[in-house]
Amino acid sequence: MSPLLPVYKRAEVTFERGEGPYLFDRAGRRYLDFGSGIAVTLLGHAHPHLVAVLEAQAEKLWHCSNLYGIEPQQRLAERLVAHSFADTAFFCNSGAEALECAIKMARRFQYGRGQAERHRIITFEGAFHGRTLATLSAGGQEKHLEGFRPELPGFDQVAAGDLAGAEAAIGGETAAILIEPIQGESGIRTLAPGFLEELRHLCDEHDLLLMFDEVQCGMGRTGRLFAYEWTRVTPDIMTLAKGLGGGFPIGACLATARAASGMTPGSHGSTFGGNPLACAVANGVLDVLLGDGFLDHVRDVGERLRGRLDQLAAAFPQVVHEVRGQGFLLGLRCEPLNTDITAACIARGLLTVPAGDNVVRLLPPLIIEQEQIDEAIGTLAEVLQDFAGREAAQ
Ligand code: PLP
Questions:
Q1: What is the DSSP letter of 20?
Q2: 93 lines ligand 1 (CB under 6 A)
Q3: pLDDT tier for residue 69 given thresholds of 50, 70 and 90
Q4: Catalytic residue positions, numbered
C-alpha cells in the first residue's frame, strides 16, 4: 500500500518550487498555477514580502502558547477587526477549524442567553464547510458523509437560494444560519442578488446569528477584501482560512462582540492556532492586500479575465455551458467531464481545479497580469478546441 493514505486521486506531477504565478516540476517544466492550491496562494509562490516576513519571524519566535501574549497574533486580530464588521477574532489552523469555532460560538451565544435549546443551524444544499464530523454534517453532502455516519445532529439543510425554505426551517431550536456567499466546492454557485440581505432580515426577525463562510471567497478573491462587502449587510460571524495565510496554514473566526458573548476563558482553544509564524505571514498578506490600489487592480484584472472567458464560452458553446463567479473565483460549467479538461490543461502546463456541477475552477493568484491571462486563455482555447473537435467527430 502507498505510504500515503490514498484519500486523494493525485495527478502524475510533483512540484519542486514556485515563483509568482508559476510552479516548476522535478524536471523543471513550468506550469501556470490557476488553482493556487485551491484558493490558497493568494500572492503566488515565494512572494518576496511573505518570504521576508516569514524569515524575520522564524529568527525570533516560532511557537508560543496562547497562555501568553503573541504580538503578531494581536496585530492580525486588530487589523482584521479594523477592516471588517467584527469586534474580535479567534485563530486556528484551517477552514474546518474556523467553522467548528463558528458553530460552537453560535450554540454558546444562545446558551449564554438562557436559550440552550436553540442549537440548530440552517445550512444550504451544495455547501462545503470542511471535513471534520461537525462540518461534514453542516455541509450535508452524501458523497462526503457516506460511511462516516452517524453525523452530528443539529443541522437543517434547505435548497441554495430558497428563502421561503429557510424561513420554514426556522424553529424554536434554531440558533443560526450558515452560508457561503459564493459556494466554491460545489461549482462556484452564486446567489440571487439580495438573497444574503434577505437572510439578514430573517436572522434579525427571529433573533438568529448570521454566519458567512468566507474560507474560499474571502481575502480579496472577489475583488473586495471580503465577499460580503458586495452586499449591503454584514454577518455576525465569519470564517476565514485558505488565502489568509497565502500558503501558510491559518484559519480565523471573526465575530461581533454580541455573537462572541458566550466565548469565555476556557470555552475554546487551540495549541497551534494563532502561532507567531502563521500570524506574521497573514500580516504580510494583509500588507499587500491593503496596499494602495491593490484590490482596485485585482478587480480590473478580474474583469479582463472574465471578459476573455466569456469570449471563450461564446466560441465553444458545445463545450462550455456557462461562466460563473466573480473576480478571481471563476468557474466554467462544461459538457465533457471537468476532470478530463483539468487533466488536458495540466498536460499543456496549466493548473485548474475541478468542482461540483462539472465545473472547472479558475482560482489564479491575485498577482497575475495580462501576460498570464493571455497564456491561460491560449491554453484553454487549445484544450476546448480539442474537445469541441472530439464532440463534432462523434
Ligand atoms: N469552507 C469552505 C467554503 C471551503 O471551501 C473549505 C475548503 O475547501 C473549507 C471550509 C474547509 O477548509 P479546510 O480544508 O482548510 O479545512
A1: B
A2: no
A3: very high
A4: 128, 213, 242
